[in-house]
Design brief:
Largest sheet: 6 strands, antiparallel
Low-confidence stretches: 8-17, 29-43, 77-111
Oligomer: single chain
CATH superfamily of the largest domain: Nucleotide-binding domain of ferredoxin-NADP reductase (FNR) module
Helix content: 10-25%
Order of helices and strands: EEHEEEEEEEEEHEEHHEHEHHEHHE
Length: 407
C-alpha cells in the first residue's frame, strides 16, 4: 500500500538559518478545521520545519489540530549519511500525482533502544535490494493491477517489524531533470519475510491510474508503474524502515480489529501471517496468538480480494481466532440499496465492535482510503451513544489502541 502519511515533508532550505524545527505531539487532521490538505499523522511525534515568517501561523495551526509543541530549535542544516538516528529533513513527494506535503517527517529513533528499527537507510544512501518476484494479485475480471513484490535484502542490515513501511526510489528523473523522490509503502510481510529466512521484504502495490483533469488522458503513477514493471534480478533502491503507529501489541491474547480497503490489506497480511502461518508460529515461540483477529475488507469485486486463497485457508484452519467480513462494493448492496462499502459493514456490526473496543486488550487498525474514516466514526458514535458515551471523546482516550494510517 502506498503510504504518504509516514513520509517526510519538503524542506525549503532557501530560508537558510531562519528555519526552525518544531517537535510536535498529538497532531490530527480535521477536514473542517484544516483545509491545508496536509496528510498529517493522527498521533505520535513529528518534526515540522518552519520558516521564521510563519512561526505564529504554524503555532495557531498546531493548536487548532490538537497538537502540543515539545520543543523548538533552530535548523542547522546538518545531514547524516546512510544509517543514522538523528533528525534529517528530507524531501519526498506526498503522492504519485503531485500533491502538497506537510513539512512533517517521522520522529527518529531515540537513543534508548526500544527494539523498533527506524531509518536504517536514508534517501542519500539507500539500500540496494534485488527483485526476486513480481506477481499479479488481481484475478480475471477484476479492476486494475496489484502486484505482490518480494525483494532480497540479505546483503545489508535492513530489518523491520510488522506494521512499518519502506521507501522506494524509482529509477529515472522527473520533469525538472531531478532524481525521483521516495514513495513509502506499507510492508506486506512479517519481520522474517515471506520465506521466513530473514532475507526478504514484500510489498503490495496497486498501479496508480487516473485521468488528467485538463487533457483527459490516462496518467500512470511514476513509482507504482516502476514497481509493476520490475523483473526478477532488477536492483531497487530502498529506504527505511519507518513508522510506529501501526505496530502490533506484544500480547498474544489481544483482540485485533483490522479495517482495510484495497492495498490497505498490506500490513494486515503481515499481522495475519505472523499470527497464523505454521512456519511463522514455529519461528516465534514467544508469540502464539490466542486472541480474536477480525478483518473487515473492502474491495470492488471478488477478483479484487487480495490474497484470498491464503486468507480463506487461515480462516478455515483457525475458525475460533480469525473472522473475515468482506464489503464487495459492486456486488453487494447496503441496507439503502446502494453499494456496500466498508463503513456499511462496520455499521452493521457496530454494537459488537463497540463492545470489543471497550476491552483494554482490543486494538483497532484502519488502513487504506481516508474516505472510510467518517463512516466508521459515525457507526461507532451511534453504538457508543446507546450507552450515553460521546465517541470522539472516548476515541481520544484510547489513542494507544486506535491506530489509523489512511491516505
Amino acid at each position: 500500500m502506498y503510504n504518504p502519511s509516514a513520509a517526510g515533508g519538503a524542506v525549503n532550505t532557501e530560508y537558510g538559518s531562519r528555519l526552525f524545527i518544531y517537535e510536535v505531539e498529538g497532531l490530527r487532521q480535521n477536514a473542517e478545521t484544516d483545509n491545508m490538505g496536509y496528510p498529517i499523522r493522527r498521533s505520535g511525534s513529528v518534526l515540522l520545519t518552519v520558516p521564521y515568517s510563519r512561526m505564529n501561523q504554524e503555532l495557531q495551526r498546531i493548536t487548532r489540530l490538537g497538537g502540543r509543541i515539545v520543543s523548538i530549535r533552530p535548523y542547522d542544516g546538518s545531514v547524516s549519511n546512510g544509517k543514522a538516528s538523528s533528525a534529517e529533513p528530507q524531501t519526498v513527494q506526498s503522492a504519485e500525482a503531485t500533491q502538497p506535503m506537510t513539512q512533517a517527517q517521522e520522529k527518529p529513533a531515540k537513543k534508548k533502544d526500544d527494539g523498533i528499527p527506524v531509518n536504517l537507510y536514508r534517501p542519500n544512501n539507500p539500500y540496494i535490494g534485488t527483485c526476486l518476484s513480481n506477481e499479479e494479485l488481481v484475478g480475471e475480471g477484476g479492476i486494475g493491477t496489484v502486484r505482490h513484490l518480494i525483494f532480497d535484502i540479505s546483503g545489508g542490515d535492513l530489518h523491520y517489524v510488522e506494521g512499518q513501511s519502506i521507501g522506494i526510489i524509482p529509477e529515472g528523473v522527473d520533469a525538472k531533470g531531478k532524481p525521483h523522490k521516495i514513495r513509502l509503502y506499507s510492508i506486506a510481510s512479517t519481520r522474517h519475510g515471506d520465506y521466513v529466512d530473514d532475507k526478504t521484504v514484500s510489498l503490495c502495490v496497486r498501479q496508480l491510474e487516473y485521468k488528467h483533469p485538463e487533457s483527459g488522458e490516462t496518467v500512470y503513477g511514476v513509482c507504482s508503474t516502476y514497481l509493476k514493471d520490475l523483473k526478477p534480478g532488477d536492483p531497487v533502491k530502498i529506504t527505511g524502515p519507518v513508522g510506529k503507529e501501526m505496530l502490533l501489541p506484544e500480547d498474544p491474547e489481544a483482540n485485533i480489529i483490522m479495517m482495510a480497503t484495497g492495498t490497505g490489506i498490506a500490513p494486515f497480511r503481515a499481522y495475519l501471517w505472523r499470527m497464523f502461518k505454521d512456519k511463522e508460529r514455529a519461528a516465534n515461540p514467544g508469540y502464539q496468538f490466542k486472541g480474536l483477529a477480525w478483518l473487515i475488507f473492502g474491495i470492488p469485486l471478488t477478483p479484487n480480494v487480495l490474497y484470498k486463497e491464503e486468507l480463506e485457508e487461515l480462516r478455515e484452519k483457525y475458525p475460533d481466532n480469525l473472522r473475515i467480513t468482506y464489503a464487495i462494493s459492486r456486488e453487494q448492496k447496503n441496507p439503502e440499496g446502494g453499494r456496500m462499502y466498508i463503513q456499511h459493514r462496520v455499521a452493521e456490526h457496530a454494537d459488537e465492535i463497540w463492545q470489543m473496543v471497550k476491552q483494554e486488550k482490543t486494538h483497532t487498525y484502519i488502513c487504506g482510503l481516508k474516505g472510510m474514516e467518517d463512516g466508521i466514526d459515525e457507526a461507532m458514535a451511534g453504538a457508543a451513544a446507546k450507552e450515553g458515551i460521546t465517541w470522539k471523546d472516548y476515541q481520544r482516550s484510547i489513542k494507544e489502541r486506535w491506530h489509523v494510517e489512511t491516505y
